[in-house]
Amino acid sequence: KNQVEQSPQSLIILEGKNCTLQCNYTVSPFSNLRWYKQDTGRGPVSLTIMTFSENTKSNGRYTATLDADTKQSSLHITASQLSDSASYICVVSERSSSASKIIFGSGTRLSIRP
Amino acid sequence: EPEVTQTPSHQVTQMGQEVILRCVPISNHLYFYWYRQILGQKVEFLVSFYNNEISEKSEIFDDQFSVERPDGSNFTLKIRSTKLEDSAMYFCASSQDIGLNSPLHFGNGTRLTVT
Questions:
Q1: What does the mean pLDDT of chain A come to?
Q2: Is the predicted pLDDT of residue B101 greater than 90, yes or no?
Q3: Strands, DSSP E only, in A1-114?
Q4: A25 near A4, Cβ under 8 Å?
Q5: A31 to chain B: which residues are within 8 Å by CB?
Q6: Which of A14, B3, B28, B57 is most enclosed, with most CB atoms within 10 A?
Q7: A66-95 residues touching B, CB cutoff 8 A
């Protein structure tokens, strides 16, 4: 069964520190992997997208990596800010035109403390 | 930047009542979706809509649910007879295409509370 697992479930760090969030998936055949940021009470917003051939993608202080062989991805946040407090969701798409083949992880709840 | 808008932001209804959740997708997008997120759980796919018809639906999207695009801008989700377990955030999303370079653009959701 296609699954997306994220760790840790939650994380608290001090403002200014770096952190790395993990995503493991079993989705096959793989098409792409996206990281979304979801602020409390809001809809998810796309941060990065990576395909099979891409190892890393940056968006400002966010850097995502992908190892398609081990089916792992990470999202690294540099010099965290209070506004980074949110849930970060890993979303993996199966190679298909089907919307139901877009698999959401449960997210990592990140809290930045001043 | 264009965005998906949803109304209302919060809806409280009694069990057995009908609710209609409304969405205005981004204007040049062709694919529309409804997702739900029960508190503390992951986002779940409900239905996708293209060319004025449902293209796909999940097991959750049973006969109590229906979608409509009544005009050129609105996209609605109707729950005919709400149950307590329908309480969740309902997100509308749209995309230009269903392919690789077309991320889902989500609205800010409607929080549905069934009492």
A1: 93
A2: no
A3: 4-7, 10-14, 19-25, 30-38, 45-51, 56-59, 62-67, 72-77, 86-94, 102-104, 108-113
A4: yes
A5: 100
A6: B57
A7: 89
